[in-house]
Write a structure and sequence with these properties.
InterPro entries: Adenosylhomocyst_ase-like_sf, Adenosylhomocysteinase-like, Ado_hCys_hydrolase_NAD-bd, NAD(P)-bd_dom_sf, S-Ado-L-homoCys_hydrolase_CS. Belongs to the adenosylhomocysteinase family. Pathway: Amino-acid biosynthesis; L-homocysteine biosynthesis; L-homocysteine from S-adenosyl-L-homocysteine: step 1/1. There is one protein chain. The chain contains 19 helices and 15 strands. By secondary structure, it is an alpha/beta fold. The protein folds into two domains: 243 residues, Adenosylhomocysteinase-like (Rossmann fold); 156 residues, NAD(P)-binding Rossmann-like Domain (Rossmann fold), CATH 3.40.50.720. The strands form two sheets. An eight-stranded mixed β-sheet has the order 9-8-7-10-11-14-13-12, with helices on one face. The chain has a seven-stranded parallel β-sheet with strand order 3-2-1-4-5-6-15, sandwiched between helices. Helix 4 packs across helix 18 and helix 5 packs parallel to helix 17. The longest helix has 24 residues. The protein is globular.
């Protein structure tokens, strides 16, 4: 028998409990108590209204309106997210503590164009603590955490970013960062090269006054090398993407975890026995392949590079062409950094129910534009998940409209971001403080010594104790006892 308050005559508590249990995340997000406070808050508020943030009049508690975010009133939630991230970013926090008194970035005016997440916020606030003045925009229209943007705006950071920006909004936000009255940028931190591209195209005189560019993506680095080759790169640039602490840790170890997180959150699919094709077996592809193989998926790989293809073979993966397996695969993941890796012709041949997503930085790997035609129906299933339906009823599941799936649909482990963010911060410090003539108008790799320093800042978390060389051993190897320990040509 039910307790008295739960009998048929008094069912209100039961109905209330059941109602709360079946509420969607977005509904729970906005659940308000009698005193006006939020009872529960999870996820992102990006779908709370349809008003474009550019049309809103918002100010932070300091009276500043030099920002554009979804809702400044959600700053407190974003601050909690940032505080959680700080606990998992020991290297960056250690750098902040060690260098804060010296202010190595005093006088630096940094344009930032990266993913806006709690982890990025820790980097931004570290740069500010080291003396920099910053203005920030998002490099991806879907990866921004709105509450984090609000927290940064509340703290005084001029930030222009919200989840679900239109293409026009995207470029407007970057432009607002660059073209600010009474503020001349002298450094760029880019992820994809968009801030660099816009400044060079629209503000060439301003671009020529930049002291240096730090770029962390394959796409952005490719653009920089193209500029250098054509003689259009008039400032030094640091290729952080190919530093060891970025390539191995962010590209390999981070993707190994975040690909599963993104796929599980969006599709709830079970991977055991599924046929998965991964396009590209670089560090990102290697991480994705390892993760899916570990869950029992049958993983295949496409490659253009014979060395990477041989690595895939030695790791136990079949190397195939897309057209050989396109009709039988259950999941297709692109990790190449190239364009039109999956064409409309291949999309037409995918099996019913195939899951399609991109782990490369650019949104050009899957020819999504070719799917926006009258004969195909787009059906939104949930946030960042669309069914594309063919006339015969076949449907594929497209995640994040072909954009970076792990940052659009899930999150990236804070600890790995700490490694990358510390590398970025050191690259900015190096370029900003370099004496004239040290760096020419070219693209450089981060010095090996700095890579080793970044790694050393993260070892205490694991209670790891490095072995020290004796004088005799150091002499035998021809090394400085303090490093660097490997030559630049060494492949980790």
């Amino acid at each position: 028998m039910l307790p008295r308050q739960h009998t048929r005559g008094s069912s209100e508590p039961v109905l209330k409990a059941l109602t709360l249990a079946v509420m969607t995340t977005s509904a729970v997000d906005s659940l308000v108590l009698e005193d006006g406070s939020l009872a529960s808050y999870t996820g992102s508020s990006s779908d709370e209204d349809d008003v474009n943030p550019r049309e809103k009049q918002q100010k932070n508690s300091r009276g500043s309106s030099d920002f554009c975010v979804k809702n400044i009133e959600h700053a407190a939630f974003g601050r909690r997210e940032i505080e959680i991230a700080e606990q998992e970013m020991p290297g960056l926090m250690a750098l902040r503590k060690r260098a804060e008194a010296d202010k190595p970035l005093q006088g630096a005016k940094i344009i930032g164009c990266t993913h806006i997440t709690a982890q990025t916020a820790v980097l931004i606030e570290t740069l500010v603590a080291l003396g920099a003045s910053v203005r920030w925009a998002a490099c991806n229209i879907y990866s921004t955490q709105n509450e984090v943007s609000a927290a940064l705006a509340e703290s005084g950071v001029p930030i222009f970013a919200w989840k679900g920006e239109l293409e026009e909004d995207f470029w407007w936000c970057i432009d607002r960062c660059i073209n600010a009255e009474g503020w001349q940028p002298n450094t760029i931190l880019d992820d994809g090269g968009d801030a660099t591209h816009l400044m060079l195209k629209k503000y060439p005189a301003m671009f020529n006054m930049i002291k240096g560019i730090v770029e962390e993506s394959v796409t952005g680095v490719h653009r920089l090398y193209q500029l250098s080759k054509s003689g259009k790169l008039t400032v030094p640039a640091m290729n952080v993407n190919d530093s060891v602490t970025k390539t191995k840790f962010d590209n390999l170890y981070s993707c190994r975890e975040s690909i599963l997180d993104a796929l599980k959150r969006t599709t709830d699919v079970m991977f055991g026995g599924k046929q998965v094709l991964i396009c590209g077996y670089g560090e990102v592809g290697k991480g994705c392949a390892q993760a899916l193989k570990g869950l029992g998926a049958i993983v295949m790989v496409t490659e253009i590079d014979p060395i990477c293809a041989l690595q895939a073979c030695m790791d136990g993966f079949r190397v195939v062409r897309l057209d050989e397996v396109v009709r039988s695969i259950d999941v297709l993941i692109t990790c190449t950094g190239n364009k039109n890796v999956v064409s409309r012709q291949s999309l037409d041949r995918l099996k019913n129910g195939c899951i399609l997503c991109n782990m490369g930085h650019s949104n050009t790997e899957i020819d999504v534009a070719s799917l926006r035609t009258p004969e195909l129906t787009w059906e939104k299933v949930r946030s960042q998940v669309d069914h594309i339906i063919w006339p015969d009823g076949k449907r594929i599941i497209l995640l994040a409209e072909g954009r970076l799936v792990n940052l659009s649909c899930s999150s990236v482990p804070s600890f790995v971001v700490s490694i990358t963010a510390t590398t970025q911060a050191l690259a900015l410090i190096e370029l900003f403080n370099a004496p004239p003539g040290r760096y020419k108008q070219d693209v450089y790799l981060l010095p090996k010594k700095m890579d080793e320093y970044v790694a050393s800042l993260h070892l205490p978390t694991f209670d790891a104790h490095l072995t020290e060389l004796s004088d005799d051993q150091a002499k035998y190897l021809g090394l400085n006892k303090a490093g660097p320990f490997k030559p630049n040509y060494y492949r980790y």
